[in-house]
Design goal:
Length: about 210
């Protein structure tokens, strides 16, 4: 028997899987990725420094600099390929996708986001992936954050959902092109991560 609750629909194509992921299970693999490809604050094309610190694992990783953002097979910091996606992380993403009704999910990229108090992510669309029929699986760990979703055209009233430790979002179908972001992280404390929120987003990028 599983203690996991049924998926909760947030928007058409967007599912919340409350408490689907376990921090204790994933943290050693996250730490090992970070040991190989350190977290860094990337630059945007417009010259801003992102408040979220990022790294990647998988065949390609999401990177941004003054030339814009893209997926790259090479970590620009080291000149080496990104770390291999740990099996535990990949399995979690596949299980979550399947639970939300997306079978045969084979993510080739995982972006790791680290939020400290005050960090935020502005409204954006994820549109650099080749196949929009494939969902993004997003895993939240540690401190709770407020996630907001708009529409494909960005306007309209936003829908907000608090993402707690272990919550997973599967973002597919119609929702795949919706603008979304994360409100400024409030100072609070989690027994394992301290003041920090982690977010993993799995993508089929290529
Ligand atoms: C975050 N998440 O939760 C940022 N993108 O920190 C995202 O930008 C995101 O959660 C696409 C699909 C699901 C997401
Ligand atoms: Fe996103």
């Amino acid at each position: 028997m599983s203690l996991f609750n049924d998926p909760v629909p947030i928007k058409p194509g967007m599912w919340l899987l409350p408490g689907f992921a376990s921090l204790q299970q994933l943290k050693p693999d996250i730490d090992s990725v970070i040991a190989q490809a350190p977290l860094r604050h990337m630059q945007t094309q417009r010259g801003f420094t992102m408040s979220v610190a990022m790294t990647n694992c998988g065949q390609v990783g999401w990177t941004s600099d003054r030339r814009g953002y893209r997926y790259s097979p090479i970590d620009p910091l080291s000149g080496e390929p990104w770390p291999v996606m740990p099996a535990s992380l990949k399995k979690l993403a596949k299980d979550a996708a399947e639970t939300a009704g997306f079978g045969l999910y084979e993510p080739d990229a995982c972006l790791i986001n680290q939020y400290k108090p005050g960090a935020q992510m502005g409204a954006h669309q994820d549109r650099n992936e080749r196949d929009f029929s494939q969902p993004i699986v997003s895993v939240s760990l540690g401190v709770t954050a407020r996630f907001f979703v708009l529409s494909e055209q960005k306007q309209g009233t936003s829908k907000s959902v608090d993402l707690n430790d272990g919550d997973v979002i599967v973002f597919g179908g119609q929702a795949r092109r919706y603008y979304h972001g994360v409100r400024k992280l409030k100072a609070s404390s989690h027994p394992i991560t301290g003041d920090t929120r982690w977010n993993l987003t799995f993508r089929v990028a290529q």
